[in-house]
Amino acid sequence: MANKAQQTRAAIRFRGRSFLATVLAPELPLDEWLAELDKLAGRSQGYFASRPVILDVTGLAITKRDFTDLIETLFKREIKVMGVEGADPSWLGFGMPPSVSGGKQTEILHKPSAEPPKQQGFVERTIPSLLIEQPVRSGQSIIFPQGDVTVLGSVASGAEIIAGNSVHIYGTLRGRAIAGSTGNAAARIFCQKFEAELIAIDGLYQTADEIDPSFRGRAVQAWLANDKMNMAALA
What we know:
Number of domains: 2
Helix content: 10-25%
Order of helices and strands: HEHEHEEEEEEEEEEEE
Radius of gyration: 21 Å
Shape: globular
Largest sheet: 6 strands, mixed
CATH topology of the largest domain: Pectate Lyase C-like
Structural class: alpha/beta
CATH class of the largest domain: Mainly Beta
């Protein structure tokens, strides 16, 4: 009977899926870094809600106790760490996030500056795109890592657009726009009326209170140059 059951048992099926994760790279002293993290969470409510997070502690001079306390502290802030990069293998075990590798490190800088780079002629290219014809409501998350996302309406506060390439919004951007999410520093963000909670390109971000208020309510574009976030009004 046992052999017959083994013969008729269905085979185990494995499926692969890809998920976008936010990478947090703490800096010393940890208390100050956590304070800055709290400011970001306060300025952009719900940013870490249900969002996969990778904790990168590569080269960070901390002890096993420091590491354990950090994981616990993040958990209390409702930041769920799904994997750890750069940790001593002896720190990881039952009840701790698993070790991961291969992530891209990105430095976070602020303060917009410089003019948009001049385009020399036209370059023909084909990029996959996703068209959203309805407004994006609060609490919704549109994720398209394959290419551009274009929204014909507005993006409400508490909503977010995440694109592997550029983000185009023909209405008002009140929520979050994240471009270049798969490591594309050439991605841009365009919107007809800028009221954003947060914008990010290739991991570099700015929140509402860090952005020049003269851009609010205007048609703008954002891009990266020399590892800095830049913005300019659109004519």
